[in-house]
Amino acid sequence: MTDDLRISDPARTREIMAQYHLRPKKSLGQNFLTNGRVLQDIVDAAELTKQDAVIEIGPGIGALTEYLAQAAGHVTAFELDQRLLPVLADTLHDYTNIDIVHQDILAATPAQLSALAPELNIVANLPYYVTTPILMHFLESGLPIRRMVMMMQKEVADRITAAPGGKEYGSLSIAVQIRTKARIAMTVSHTAFNPPPKVDSAVVVFDFLTEPLVPAADQAYFNQVVTASFAQRRKTIMNNLLNWYGKTPAHRAILTAALSQAGVAPTARAETVSIAEFIVLSKKLSGQK
């Protein structure tokens, strides 16, 4: 094997896959990144130092892991596919600052992850099919996370970073933005992967707010209000909320007052309502239902 080449080099990736008779599993959303420039850009976006601890999700054959190990103090990579464990042991054998954990990241507890370091960085090329569950797993974990840098489907990245007023803006946008400042760092062509997916990807950087815009104790009810408001996007926010809250005259009066206090017209659609307005609306409705 041409060990002088990086794991991500297309020629070496092909050699590794041939040596271990690997075929990416569609069921696990496996697409191996083979563009070194993109990998370096991902690591650069994470702004890592040798004092940093990193959690990687789904290292695959180790392409991103290699770059992370060179930039960070320690990398803990969670790999679900047992076939890849001997591959990673081989491709990453020169690195002493990597631990490979054979576990579904969604099964990892906050206590397990927080024990890795006082402050964490999450870097991952996420499988498309499980992007949102993994993202919410970390957003709701309460872990001491400094920054997350995640590759995902471009369409999902657009939804995460969307502002009010467009079709991309929705409950996912709000769930992310009440906890982080999220931005798209780059778009990545589908041709950068082996095998290439059908759509392009994007790398999103999440910087965690010092305090979430909605206190943890209020988030469950806030989420109910937001979810109800977006239940049927073509309906007005009033009609959606009536279906959730109740349709009696008393319920309608409470909703009308709460919307007015939030500065939201009853005829508006949820996609035009800002996070600040949703926060006021939720506060006014809290305890009334």
TrEMBL record:
SMART domains in the record: rADc
InterPro entries linked: KsgA/Erm (IPR001737), rRNA_Ade_diMease-like_C (IPR023165), rRNA_Ade_Mease_Trfase_CS (IPR020596), rRNA_Ade_methylase_Trfase_N (IPR020598), rRNA_adenine_dimethylase (IPR011530), SAM-dependent_MTases_sf (IPR029063)
A UniProt-annotated Pfam family: RrnaAD
Enzyme class: transferase
One GO MF term attached to the UniProt entry: 23S rRNA (adenine(2085)-N(6))-dimethyltransferase activity
UniProt: S-adenosyl-L-methionine binding residues: 31, 33, 58, 79, 104, 125
UniProt keyword annotations, A-Z: Cytoplasm, Methyltransferase, RNA-binding, rRNA processing, S-adenosyl-L-methionine, Transferase
GO CC, alphabetical: cytosol
Membrane spanning residue stretches: none
Principal location class: cytoplasm
EC number of the protein: 2.1.1.182
Subcellular location per the Swiss-Prot or TrEMBL entry: Cytoplasm
Catalytic activity line of the entry: adenosine(1518)/adenosine(1519) in 16S rRNA + 4 S-adenosyl-L-methionine = N(6)-dimethyladenosine(1518)/N(6)-dimethyladenosine(1519) in 16S rRNA + 4 S-adenosyl-L-homocysteine + 4 H(+); adenosine(2085) in 23S rRNA + 2 S-adenosyl-L-methionine = N(6)-dimethyladenosine(2085) in 23S rRNA + 2 S-adenosyl-L-homocysteine + 2 H(+)
Record flagged with keyword Disulfide bond: no
Record bears the keyword Heme: no
PANTHER family from the UniProt entry: DIMETHYLADENOSINE TRANSFERASE, DIMETHYLADENOSINE TRANSFERASE-RELATED
Family: Belongs to the class I-like SAM-binding methyltransferase superfamily. rRNA adenine N(6)-methyltransferase family. RsmA subfamily.
Record function comment: Specifically dimethylates two adjacent adenosines (A1518 and A1519) in the loop of a conserved hairpin near the 3'-end of 16S rRNA in the 30S particle. May play a critical role in biogenesis of 30S subunits.
Name the UniProt record assigns to this protein: Ribosomal RNA small subunit methyltransferase A
Native species: Schleiferilactobacillus harbinensis
